[in-house]
Amino acid sequence: MAKTKRIITILLRLLAFGATLTATVVMVTSHDSAEVLNLKFSAKYTNSPAFKFYVIAEAIASGYGLIALFLCSKSSVERLIVILDVVVAMLLTSSISAALAEAEIGKKGNSHAGWLPICGQVPKFCDHVTGALIAGFAAAIVYLVLNLYSLLVVLAPLFPVKP
Amino acid sequence: MAKTKRIITILLRLLAFGATLTATVVMVTSHDSAEVLNLKFSAKYTNSPAFKFYVIAEAIASGYGLIALFLCSKSSVERLIVILDVVVAMLLTSSISAALAEAEIGKKGNSHAGWLPICGQVPKFCDHVTGALIAGFAAAIVYLVLNLYSLLVVLAPLFPVKP
Known about the structure:
Chain A is mostly helical. Chain A has one domain. In chain A, 70% of the residues lie in helices and 7% in strands. The first copy, chain A, has four helices and two strands; from the N terminus they run αββααα. Chain A has a two-stranded antiparallel sheet with strand order 1-2. In chain A, β1 (31-36) and β2 form a beta hairpin. In chain A, α1 packs antiparallel against α2, α1 (2-28) packs antiparallel against α4 (123-155) and α2 (49-71) packs antiparallel against α3. The longest helix of chain A is centred in the last third of the chain and has 33 residues, at 123-155. Chain A is elongated, with a radius of gyration of 20 Å. Chains A and B meet through β2, α3 and α4 of A and β2, α3 and α4 of B. Chains A, B: Keywords: Cell membrane, Membrane, Transmembrane, Transmembrane helix. Chains A, B: It holds the Pfam family CASP_dom.
């Protein structure tokens, strides 16, 4: 039972690490430029605070994921890891929501505010951002599963099911 | 000890309920219009998907907060409440990040994408959104404290501190 639990946890952590690393790399390499009316127009992730926050959050989650992969089997830090998992899940959720809100404006614009969509001009940039968001979304879901799993496993002995 | 724990939890839940309710009401009542070059320009929260998501999330959190206030002392649902607290905290974090990213563009614009700031035209709308975001932020922090508190209290017996 303990061994199955450890294997499931390590598999989930590997998945989460891969997803966050992919999200970071794909977002950092996103770059495209276009020329509209002789005006050079360049799009990269550093142009937007939300995308910068996304890269920083995914990079932190990758680093933490790698460390947690080696430490999660040690019982002395198990309590700290359970709490840090929740914090990292919140960080990921927050960064994805911010980046998604900004990407939505980039994709569809907002006619009420007079903001035009930019994906028509810089399609390569938009594709990269979409890819990075999908990878980040997968990572967030893995962390959610990891949290619910460890909460259920950790909480189980405290609340025995009544017949 | 159990009584102190219950009083702290109820106080935190009351705070969180007040904050989410305030955030919902302030965001829903946000409305301003301006006339630029004979063009009527109206700003309300329904113009933005991120702000709509914010109102829905804060309303759900208010409803849950009210129910949890009455149920949290019953031990039969304690386990469910601990898990739902984490889910609500993530929902709040997500909605605040999305609304904040959109509000940041409204406040400062994004010169790279050609999006102009709108707060100069509709200051009353921007003030309401700022107020709603501050209330939502307070609610998210209260839920974070609530989660860490219940995690520490619940996890404590499982991981005794070694001398």
